[in-house]
Amino acid sequence: xxxxxxxxxxxxxxxxxxxxxxxxxxxxxxxxxxxxxxxxxxxxxxxxxxxxxxxxxxxxxxxxxxxxxxxxxxxxxxxxxxxxxxxxxxxxxxxxxxxxxxxxxxxxxxxxxxxxxxxxxxxxxxxxxxxxxxxxxxxxxxxxxxxxxxxxxxxxxxxxxxxxxxxxxxxxxxxxxxxxxxxxxxxxxxxxxxxxxxxxxxxxxxxxxxxxxxxxxxxxxxxxxxxxxxxxxxxxxxxxxxxxxxxxxxxxxxxxxxxxxxxxxxxxxxxxxxxxxxxxxx
Length: 282
Fold this sequence. Notes:
- The chain is α/β, with parallel strands linked by helices.
- It is about 35% helix and about 25% strand.
- Strand 9 and strand 10 (about 275-280) form a beta hairpin.
């Protein structure tokens, strides 16, 4: 019987890649990078076989979709931030068996989900690639990427996909880590001023609400958080509609979850958005 051994909400800001480079911005995201390093170390200590990532940079328009192709390797340049994230080499191995089982269970439970493991040209998005880079995941641990940005789906559907992930894990023989890859508030500033917001939040109220949410997570108040999640995601422009977070809590047991989250990287603003790395005890 398989086991969920780690669950987290993680950042994927492309400025981490800039932080690696020589120049005036070298080291600017070191705390975020080190937080992901710690989570990667935990994955190895826990003998994780597969990392499942809900990626809020993968937009889908119809149905839920999973990328689990065996060969996940290439060179990535972001079309959104090519000046931040370019020519990033990566090499990972997908887990078609687990990916297909997630899709089968989710579909059987009423949420049509397709797993793609024979489409060699289906590329990974940076919400998957950036965390994997700083987790230090190579081909030793397999990967399943789930689209976490739904054009027109409700939170209940994403909750059900999260539940399907847990059921698929239990039916497998794998030790699995789940990552919800996305920001908290995600209001990027207008183009004319966005370069001034590398270290600032776009809306001060968003930061206050982000911090309130983190306090809820750290205090084990999942029920109270889930009551405000739809409005929070809408009013604070949660990344990808925060479907990654709905999957995460679906996996954890939704409003019956009482675990107290632990910060791996303290809250920080990045290009107007609110970011963090947080572990949820399982």
